[in-house]
Amino acid sequence: MTDVRPLAGFTVGITAARRAEELGALLVRQGAAVRYGPAIRIVPLADDTELHAATMRLLESPVDIVVATTGIGFRGWIEAAEGWGLGEKVLDHLSNASLLTRGPKAAGAVRTAGLAEDYSPASESSAELLQYLTQSGVDGRRIALQLHGEPLPYFAETLRQAGAEVIEIPVYRWVAPADPGPLDRLLDAVLEGTIDALPFTSAPAAASTVAMARRTGRLGALIEVLSSRVVVACVGPITAAPLASLGISTVQPLRSRIGALARTVADALVTASPTLYAAGHVLQIRGTGALVDGEWREIAPAPMALLRALARQPGRVVARRELSAELPSGGEAHAVETAIGRLRTSLGGTGVVQTVVKRGYRLAMNPGDTPAPIG
User: In sequence order, what DSSP letters do the residues of 188-222 get, joined into one string?
Assistant: First the structure.
């Protein structure tokens, strides 16, 4: 028996711009197929006039507290400042402030710059960082808040309401992708049922994906699909917010890390594919095929659609007219019979699919088996 990797048969869509290849590689390593459709792009740091303006404002007078939220963002800020001839001046300015970092990567970037952090929350969360600041007292303090690709309105506003002057440092900004084609095609694949999971690494990517669906008249269909058969994963609650506002449930790792997100996607996909027992065989249905007694069987789209329909209520007889509606391109009774024949061949002639004369087809559930519905 050939070893089957954990995510064999599943296809994952990736909308990220930054670290998309890293996330994709983690999933491919486990056997998944990956389709990329960047929903955003990053404005180059040195070309960003907003970052330059914020830096100049920061240098106007001493700063009391600096909040570094990401390692790549903090490093990029210092590199951009060096490009403007302001590197040493910015570092001198920051060296007199209390530095707070959101996690170990931000702390590492701060140390690499020759500085040292004063506090970093164990949870690596913005919420704990904000709580620390407000409890410490920020009235009358001048605070530099390094953003991480999107505004942090709640964070900044809470500090302002507590009496602080907040300078938001937009280290890199998300904007719409220069070529929306890959995202458009990825959305088509999601709606066609060929994508099994859609992980998001940032709120802007989630919001941009929703905006593309709304703009092209596909939002209702997207919400329905993401709320049913597609696993939607987010690196954290801030990333999930644009989806939560539409009622779309997501799975999230305990730690906001790419590796943890990949593991969460893998676990959710496997959990969403329960095991069935039919005709004496162990059957697990996946995106593009099925595991039969541990052996991987690739199945073409039309017969795969019928297998999913039969598995929704294992053992129930499904009429031909119901099955014809499940075919990707529709079809009459003969199209169903052809697809069923191909399905049986793909499953290796196991007898898993049973004909019920004049009624339709069913999965051959054995007496005493406990059916596990497939979503």
Answer: HHHHHT---EEEESSHHHHHHHHHHHHHTT-HHHH
Phi, psi of 289 (to 5 degrees): 175, -155
Is 367 in a helix, a strand, or coil? Answer: coil
Burial code (b: 16+ CB inside 10 Å, e: under 16) for 89-102 equals: ebeebbeebbbbbb
Looking at the DSSP assignment, which residues form a beta bridge with residue 353? 363
Return the SS3 of 365.
strand
* Phi, psi angle pair for 354, to nearest 5°: -110, 135
Bridge partners of 41, per DSSP, are 175
Distance CA 177, CA 191 (A): 21
Task: Give the number of other CB atoms < 10 A from CB of residue 329.
Answer: 8
| Dihedral over Cα of 262, 268, 273, 274: its sign | positive
CA angle 165, 167, 172 (to 5 degrees): 160
- Given a contact cutoff of 8 angstroms between Cβ atoms, the answer to whether 350 and 292 are in contact is yes
> Rounded to whole angstroms, how far apart are CA atoms 256 and 358?
54
How many residues are listed for the chain in this entry? 375
**DSSP H helical segments within 46-95, as ranges?**
49-58, 71-83, 87-95
Tokens of 105: 């990567």
Q: What is the pLDDT of residues 49-99, one digit of tens each?
A: 888 999 999 999 999 999 998 888 899 899 889 989 999 999 999 999 999
Condensed to tens digits (0 to 9), the pLDDT of residues 210-237 reads 999 999 999 999 999 999 889 999 988 8
